[in-house]
Amino acid sequence: MKVLEEVSKLRNKKINKIEKLKEEQKALDFWNDFETICSGKYEDLTEVHGKHLLKCFGIYDKGSSDSFTIRIRIPLGQLTQEQASKFSQVAYKYGKSTIDLTTRSQMEFRHLNLHELPIVLKELESVGITTFQTAGDNFRGVITSPFDGYSKTSLITCEDLIQDIHDVFLKNEEYIGTLPRKFNTGILGDTVNDCNIFGQDCAFVLASKDNELGFNLYLGGKVGVQARPLNLFISPNQVKLTFKTIVDLFKKYGFRDNRNKNRITYFLDEIGMEEFEQAIIETSALPLKTAGELLVKDEYKIDKSATIKLKDNKTAVYFPIPSGIFNSKDLHCVTKLMDETNSILRLTNEQSFFLIAQDEFVQRIKEFQIFKKYDSYHNVYFNNQIACAGINECSFGVIANKSDAINMAIYLNQYVPIENAKIRMYWSACPKGCGVQ
Fold first, then answer.
1. Which of 125, 167, 317, 363 has its CA 20 to 30 A from that of 76?
2. Contacts of residue 30, Cβ cutoff 8 Å, sequence gap at least 6
3. Which pLDDT does position 437 carry in this prediction?
4. Are 71 and 321 in contact (CB under 8 A)?
5. What is the mean pLDDT of residues 365-374?
6. Are 175 and 247 within 8 A, CB to CB?
7. Tens of pLDDT along 304-357?
8. For strand 344-347 and strand 307-309, is the pairing parallel, antiparallel, or unpaired?
9. Alpha-carbon gap, residue 338 to 356, rounded angstroms
10. Helices (H), 126-205
């Protein structure tokens, strides 16, 4: 622990501008005044509102009173028919019908008006969906397999464990906007890596130790950087306290000087993995074992049938959504399909989704026009495609990006047709590389 303290003290002699803004007002105090603030003039929003406080509740100020973006938190990337129907209504009524699917198996609504933000958030909360802590220096959506609990290779169902992780920080004043930087978490109980599990700040990855299933722990992943293994095996009942220990150490000792180098990976570079590992053991007081045998060894591939067979007579039917560009009308069509086939929707980290249904409904799903529309995009260049927001929606973007990615995929499929292969096509519109996994 001494090393953590010394390194933190050395690096935090000066703090960055955002850290200074955090001292102006507590996030929950802002939230208590949220409706009053939104009823005022756009011009009255201050720098701390736009750069910190709004982000604590998933809201991005895009530069005008009718251009706000909301990022929502969808556990497991799973939507019920009721939730999907509500999202369709919200996007149509308040967001010019625009829906973006994201790389964390989540959704974003755009083109929202300042005065309507409180109404939109209440509409989402009415179906059990929150926007808390989805942007800024907070915890992004916790990723897992889109087939968690359904896949034949899903050895640990992670739904309850994700709830345990949420119980640590979600709507907890201690953690709202208080981290040194954003924090990405993933937990995978499947032998197939279908969620970029090693690209997370904190990753619990399926493993076995002494005939027990659990997780090996990886830390320090980010865009273009793979997380590094610690020599620790985490049992399912140890996940919650281990996660809390990690984020508490990061919160207490992490760097708050240069925002470009404040992610946990840079902290680990300075103190060393073994030192942080020992800090976890000492702080948690858990009887943690050394790392076990890693069981995540495969990747899934979508074939021409657009389906993946699951256990218990269920099948996942794939809907490739080019560059994640979706809309309220099509989501409404999907909700009707879900209702008729008693299916659930699971978003992927590659800006698309699956409908999971009993085998008897698969053919019925494929008969719907909405499936046929998106199945027309079914080719190896769309199946594993990602494209970040681009110049139209992001201040850092320098190219259109999403349309570029779509046009290239169509072109390649026409002139370089390939079958039975997996090709990743990830597009980033600026040097930040948000479209790279």
1. 363
2. 37, 49, 53, 56
3. 60
4. no
5. 96
6. yes
7. 889 999 999 999 999 999 999 999 999 999 999 999 999 999 999 999 999 999
8. unpaired
9. 9
10. 159-169
The residue to which tokens 């990723």 are assigned: 143
Outline where 12-128 has alpha helix (H): 17-22, 27-32, 34-38, 47-48, 81-94, 117-125
Question: Distances from the Cα of 258 to the Cαs of 47, 49, 176, 267, 325, in angstroms?
Answer: 19, 21, 20, 12, 34
Q: DSSP secondary-structure letter at 52?
A: I
Give yes or no for a contact between 191 and 155, defined as CB atoms under 8 angstroms apart.
Answer: yes
3-class state of residue 421 by DSSP: coil
Cβ atoms of 174 and 139 closer than 8 Å = no
Q: What φ, ψ does residue 327 adopt, rounded to 5°?
A: -155, 165
What's at 6, amino acid-wise? Answer: E
Q: How far apart are CA 170 and CA 130, in angstroms?
A: 9
Residue 401, classed as helix, strand or coil, is coil
Which residues pair with residue 357 across a beta bridge? 315
Backbone angles phi, psi at 285, to 5 degrees: 60, 20
**3-state secondary structure string, 241-286?**
HHHHHHHHHHHHHCCCCCHHHCCHHHHHHHHCHHHHHHHHHHHHCC
In whole angstroms, give the CA distance from residue 437 to residue 426.
8
Q: Which structure tokens are listed for 225?
A: 């950087």
pTM: 0.97
